[in-house]
Amino acid sequence: MIYGDSESLSRYSALVPSLDKIDKILFSYAQEMNSFECDEKLCTLFIALEDGGRLACGWRENGMSNDILGAVTLSKGDFALFLPGERFAFTGQARVRRYSLE
């Protein structure tokens, strides 16, 4: 997981080129998750529009584990970027955009 303020998101465009076109990419709003999710092919980006959402990451090596390795509470303007294969879970009722990126 890469975490920071959305003002610094462009720093990672060398890693994920589609970040340069984020304003043209369709998004959904993050929904409360009961367990971890993982996208093996695409990056998953969360951008907080308001305070209060929480994200956790889990073991990449053990998809059966529900252990949380790290967690962040999002404030307005924060982002969290998960690379392909990273496990994540979202909780909270805050408005948080969710993108799938190549």
Secondary structure elements and pairings:
Blueprint: E1 2-5, E2 28-29, E3 37-38, E4 43-48, E5 54-58, E6 68-73, E7 78-82, E8 87-91, E9 96-101
Antiparallel strand pairs: 1-7, 2-9, 3-8, 4-7, 4-9, 5-6, 5-8
What strand line-up does the widest sheet have? 1-7-4-9-2
Number of strands: 9
Low-confidence stretches: none
Radius of gyration: 13 Å
The secondary structure category is: mainly beta
The first-to-last residue Cα distance is 16 Å
**Mean pLDDT, all residues:** 93
Order of helices and strands: EEEEEEEEE
**Percentage of residues in DSSP E strands:** 35-45%
Overall 3D shape: globular
Q: What percent of residues adopt helix (DSSP H or I)?
A: under 10%
Q: How many helices in DSSP terms?
A: 0
Please outline the major beta sheet: 5 strands, antiparallel
Key features?
102 residues, globular, single chain, 5-stranded antiparallel beta sheet, 4-stranded antiparallel beta sheet, mainly beta
